[in-house]
Amino acid sequence: MSVAEQPESEQEQQQLALAAAAGIHRLAIPTPFMVGRVNAYLIEDSPLTLIDSGPNSAKALDELEQALAARGHAIEDIELLVISHQHMDHFGLASILARRSGAEVAALDGLAPLLAGYGRESDLDDHFAELLMLRHGIPAEIVTALRAVSEGFRAWGSAVEVTRALTDGSMLELSDHKLRVLHRPGHSPSDTVFVDESRSIMLAADHLIAHISSNPLLARPLGADADYDGPRPQALLTYMASLEQTRAMDLSLVLPGHGRPITDHAALIDERFRMHERRARKINALIASQPRTAHEIAQELWGNVAVTQAYLTLSEVLGHVDLLLRDGLVVEAERNGVVHFTAL
Fold first, then answer.
1. For the chain, does the N or the C end have fewer beta carbons within 10 angstroms?
2. What is the distance, to the nearest Å, from the Cα of residue 336 to the centroid of all Cα atoms in its chain?
3. So what's the pLDDT on residue 20?
4. DSSP secondary structure string for all residues of 33-66
């Protein structure tokens, strides 16, 4: 049983009751991923609104139907489906739900092309990741194996047409809820949160999670094509800037995409910042002992995990190296097409 699937504590029940009193109900949907269940949120309003869908699986669909039925609804009743970001555990069922219900599908304007062209866009993402892994010292045979794994996972997602494009800062208006749409990139380029300002409630998806730190995954920028050769995205720096914006907000409740609600978002964000600084210092010490590639750093930190989850650990290392580059503590140099980092 994952952390996200542990029985609810009394405190968690009280927090969910507060959300329910505001007409927002958590539907915890199973996923095949290590993170455990994903939280979709049903907003009982007009239009009847679902935030995120769960992955494209029969089990997820069955449990979603059961969760809706427990609230007196069916999939066919959904009138508006909102997608928070580009990860398949959050949008995989969207096309099925939209087809069965006729619901509008809303998502950030920059995310819409990625969802509509899911297969092609996934190919572009894999190509981007492949080049990045090779450039940072991951052996070609590991890159090939991870490409095959990524292609195998695609069935958990599905293309869906966005019929209502949302813009950063705009308002998504229901009869009794007005949700401010805020683009908060970092965990992914398309992360979008929705804030009920009158109730100080944020629907945060994976932007902020209580029991785990959201990994800022290196990803192809929104709208970039197959020939993208711009600067490497600095996902952790982008994510920390987004967290700074969220920290400054007056929020009584944050409803995340996994796990329990959050009532102390500023304290949690402060702890996340301290954690990133600690990890950056640890990586700096490794680089100070001798120049290393990002993959070599990952192997020092996580051993075999850096092979089986090479892209995840690469994203983690490069994010923290970016903190060191920002602070002028390391430099990078390319040798034979592979980047090495050296301490100053």
1. N
2. 33
3. 95
4. STT--EEEEEE-SSS-EEE----SSHHHHHHHHH
